[in-house]
Design a protein that fits this description.
single chain, alpha/beta, Rossmann fold, 6-stranded mixed beta sheet, 12 helices
Length: about 290
């Protein structure tokens, strides 16, 4: 097994990725070239406030807050709604397939991780139907399912950290299976404001999650879970939860190595930063327990 860093750092590869993200968001928002140039120049100035030790979501928050401030709207609003609609159209069939599987929890975990391909920040092209089928056929890379199921069996309180719109419908499938297995006090947390295509309370509502479990927002606009920026409620629930389910790379990048023994990460490896930090392979589907404190 390759060595794994205790925290996820920002690499030089991340910098051009952020500029590509900025151009994509600005063009979606209809910003003219002059405004695009001004925002890119301002972001380049602000990069001097960060070091490689900062996780990528810290830089992402700075970028998207700047775009929101200068453009005045959410560039991904309609894309997110469409992603939710497409995922909801698949929900009834997937619900039946999970019920028919030999291990419904495992099947729901697989669908939830496969859906992490819905990520406009990483710039990945995806065919959601094909990705789901591939996950069922091919299995997984690093997949600590037995440890996850054991931790769930002991858990009274569960905190589920959602990631992207569209994907949140598949989170609902997993949440429902978790609740079906025991009397869990489950809270699902979304972002506190619009950032890239990350899920907010509007997305959770559209996905029907408010009818399934308690939904809160984390009080922050980072594309991850930066605990030092999150609300008191989110930090309390994170510290007190018996099990924390962390979806997606943004949550991984901001929480890897956090002092939470019951923390599990579910995600697809999409970029060099995660490959290098965690010693995983690009494209790998992962269920991974947080490392114990050093």
């Amino acid at each position: 097994m390759k060595a794994r860093a205790r925290t996820v750092h920002t690499y030089l590869d991340c910098i051009p990725c952020f500029f590509r993200q900025a151009l994509r968001a600005l063009r979606l928002a209809g910003a003219d070239e002059a405004l695009q140039g001004e925002i890119l120049l301002e972001f380049s100035r602000r990069l001097g406030n960060f070091t490689p030790a900062d996780p990528p979501p810290a830089l992402g928050r700075e970028l998207y807050a700047l775009i929101r401030e200068r453009v005045g709207k959410d560039p991904y609003r309609e894309i997110k709604r469409q992603a939710n609609r497409e995922a909801l159209a698949l929900y009834p069939e997937l619900k039946e397939r999970i019920a028919r599987s030999g291990d419904p929890l495992r099947a729901a975990v697989g669908f939830a991780i496969a859906a992490n391909i819905i990520d406009y920040g990483a710039g990945t092209e995806h065919d959601l139907n094909a990705e789901l089928e591939r996950a069922l056929r091919a299995g997984f890379g690093t997949f600590e399912y037995d440890a996850f199921r054991e931790a769930l069996g002991r858990a009274g309180s569960v905190l589920y950290l959602a990631d992207n719109a569209g994907e949140i419908v598949f989170d609902r499938l997993l949440v429902e299976e978790i609740l079906a297995l025991g009397d869990h006090d489950l809270t699902l947390a979304v972002r506190g404001a619009a950032v890239i295509n990350d899920a907010t309370r509007d997305d959770a509502r559209q996905a029907g999650l408010e009818e399934v479990c308690r939904v809160i927002d984390n009080g922050d606009d980072s594309p991850g879970t930066m605990l030092e920026r999150c609300s008191d409620e989110l930090r309390r629930r994170f510290a007190d939860a018996d099990l924390v389910v962390s979806k997606g790379q943004g949550n991984l990048e901001s929480l890897w190595g956090a002092r939470q023994a019951g923390l599990f990460f579910l995600f697809k490896v999409k970029c060099a930063a995660v490959e290098r930090n965690l010693g995983l392979d690009r494209g790998e589907t992962v269920l991974l327990r947080n490392p114990p404190p050093a």
